[in-house]
Amino acid sequence: MLPAQPNQSLIDGLTVIQALAMRDAPVGCRELARETGIELTKVNRLLKTLAHIGLARQNPGRKYITGPGIHVLASQALHGSGLLKTAFDPLEKLSQLNLIVALGVLWRDQVSYLYFRTPGTSAAQAIGSLGLFPASQSSIGMVTLAGMEMEEVKSLYAGKVIPGYENSQALFFKEVQKTREQGYGLVYRDDTKETSMAVAVGMPLVGAIALSGRMKNNEQNTYLKILKNIAKEITERLEKNL
Amino acid sequence: MLPAQPNQSLIDGLTVIQALAMRDAPVGCRELARETGIELTKVNRLLKTLAHIGLARQNPGRKYITGPGIHVLASQALHGSGLLKTAFDPLEKLSQLNLIVALGVLWRDQVSYLYFRTPGTSAAQAIGSLGLFPASQSSIGMVTLAGMEMEEVKSLYAGKVIPGYENSQALFFKEVQKTREQGYGLVYRDDTKETSMAVAVGMPLVGAIALSGRMKNNEQNTYLKILKNIAKEITERLEKNL
DNA sequence: TGTAATGTTGCTATATTAGCAACAAATGCT
DNA sequence: AGCATTTGTTGCTAATATAGCAACATTACA
Q: What is the domain range of residue B115?
């Protein structure tokens, strides 16, 4: 439902901190303006406002980075979300498979990872460790897109080049459709020979969990079953929270 | 530095989601307006805007709760913050003391907990599990307030009743000053006979870690030393991230 | 040294917000 | 049940804040 007096400044301002928070290095306001599609002057002033309340900061070269307030926002959002808390222990079980274990959500046309655990690392290192990844090249991204209306997906990519499908948007939409029908996301990367599979989490969908790594064809079904079970467990635990 | 065109809508809008995210039950817009001190109509319209972008939602009784977008915001803020990831393993070490272990940050005059672990529970359950607690009654709150300018602290509590110091603001400010001088926060709760101690984390300060529970006087120094060591470790690890 | 990029702001027409007052719906109380 | 509050919500218009071009100083790069 669209409000009586919608507030575009709030929407744009949120987009700006979110874009800023995902960066691992200082960013300029012009670059953020290009990335977000928001007019430059506006971005600059929103950043200055964010800096004023401590959510952003400027380094000596006047580039922007997140400020101390981001810890507070993280704390609050984490509490309001509860997704990481709920999924943490179930995901722990997956880590013994010696594959990458991930929990991600969709932001614009990219996947943001709440949890990304590489084999051999501690669970702590998995928390918010990975930044953004193009949704079209991610199994989590595909299964999350598959949970949206096709029109939404199309408007999300309107006028954009789709990573991994540079020559054919149609092929990409077909792939999304296929993902929807089979109920899980599957991406194979040729260069690393790695397979990623993802299953949606939440009812309605709030994100997805994934397993990724080199796996043989006959192992895939086993992994998929395990993944689906964990996804179901997380979804059920989410219901209980509310 | 205050910007050329500061954006109050963004500031207020952020305040509203933050307040909303900390609630464990649905809240009305009028209640949020009272809590935040923002004019009612504005809060209502900001909430509707937040609902429009998925950060908020209305339940059947038209009360507001966080929406699915909060998971995305949590993911992004968590990545931008890095505090939980950095502190997680060091905090794990503290859990074997059989005391409550907490990591909190200051929001307005309250403490928001990134991590709050009760003895006997899993680390996962500690993630963003506890909502808000009055800073004046929290060791984390006291040590964080002690890291601020006294003027800031006073303006934070201007015209308010200070929880735990209902009869004397002066006594509270004295306590803050004492906390600053001794370099750690100490709070004793008479009803439960529990002691809480907290040490600041980050340089400059971004939050604090705490130990809490029943402890004998002669144990306090030992615990304090351990706590200081862990705080130092976390602070150093934070430096390395940037 | 020149060229192109960057962060930043002054300016004013324009669009947006502020916030009172009013409304209907829900809730609490008797 | 009925009355009195309290709630979420919006219409309205004066007052305000924003949009965004163009320009500036500064920095990176050739």
A: 82-241
Q: Which two tokens stand for residue B136?
A: 């004046």
Q: Are B106 and B212 in contact (CB under 8 A)?
A: no
Instruction: Inform me whether the pLDDT recorded for A89 exceeds 90.
Output: yes
CATH number at residue B230: 3.30.450.40
Cis amide bond preceding B163, omega within 30: no
Structural contact between residues B174 and B168, judged by C-beta atoms closer than 8 angstroms: no
For residue B30, the domain's CATH number is: 1.10.10.10
**Who contacts A95 (Cβ-Cβ below 8 Å, separation ≥6)?**
A101, A117, A119, A123
Which amino acid residue lies closest to nucleotide D6, measuring CA to C1'? Answer: B30
ipTM of the complex: 0.95
Instruction: Decide: A109 and A152 in contact? Cβ < 8 Å.
Output: no
Is B166 part of a structural domain of the chain? yes
DSSP helix/strand/coil, B225: helix
Is the CB of residue B77 less than 8 Å away from at least one CB of chain A?
yes
Quickly count: other Cβ atoms within 10 Å of residue A226's Cβ: 15
- Mean pLDDT, range B151-177, rounded to an integer: 94
CB B29 within 8 A of CB B40: yes
Q: Count up the domains in chain A and report the number.
A: 2
Residue A109 · residue A137 · CB < 8 Å? no
Rounded CA-CA distance A210/A194 in Å is: 13
**Region for residue B120 given its phi and psi (left: phi exceeds 0; alpha: psi -120 to 50; beta: otherwise):** left
Tens digits of residue pLDDT in A149-204: 999 999 999 888 999 999 999 999 999 999 999 999 999 999 999 999 999 999 99
Taking the CA of residue B87 and the nearest CA in chain A, the distance in Å comes to 8
| Residue B236 resides in a domain | yes
Alpha helices for chain B (secondary structure H): 8-21, 29-36, 40-52, 69-81, 83-94, 123-126, 139-146, 150-156, 169-182, 217-241
Instruction: Identify, with chain letter, the residue nearest to nucleotide D21 (CA–C1').
Output: A41
Could you read off the pLDDT of A69-86 as tens digits, one per residue?
A: 999 999 999 999 999 999
CA–C1' nearest nucleotide, residue A63? C7
* A158 within some domain: yes
